[in-house]
């Protein structure tokens, strides 16, 4: 906004001394000080009256009512609750999908082990059969 440096303040002081004159300068300073004092007093009174109005019981009741309405509004936030429920469902389905994949992998491992075991059994059976055949050939 309005910012004054030392140079601007010095320039304004010189202009005031030239325009007003050194003889009437103390009168001007006294008038400015009484004006600023009256401004401060007026602003203090205005602030006090605003605080008095704000402290009035009716405004406190209105403020408390507005706070209650805001709390109710936050409690009624259906959109947020609905989003959290949907997120919960998505998380649950992801967990279930991971469990199903794990079970399928386990089932595939069991089937491969069964196939390996059945191949091993077939090998043993074939070896016994060939051994029996060899013994029969010997007789």
Report a brief summary of the structure:
By secondary structure, the chain is mainly α. Helices cover 90% and strands 0% of the residues.
Topology as a string of helices (H) and strands (E):
HHHH
User: Between the first and last Cα atoms, what is the distance in angstroms?
Assistant: 121 Å
Largest sheet: none
The count of β-strands is 0
Task: Give start-end ranges of low-pLDDT stretches.
Answer: none
* Number of structural domains: 2
The percent range for strand residues is under 5%
Overall 3D form:
elongated
Rg, Å, rounded: 48 Å
**What is the residue-averaged pLDDT?**
84
Query: What structural class is derived from the secondary structure elements?
Result: mainly alpha
Q: What would you note in describing this structure?
A:
The chain is mainly α. 90% of the residues lie in helices and 0% in strands. The chain starts with 5 loop residues before the first helix and ends with a helix.
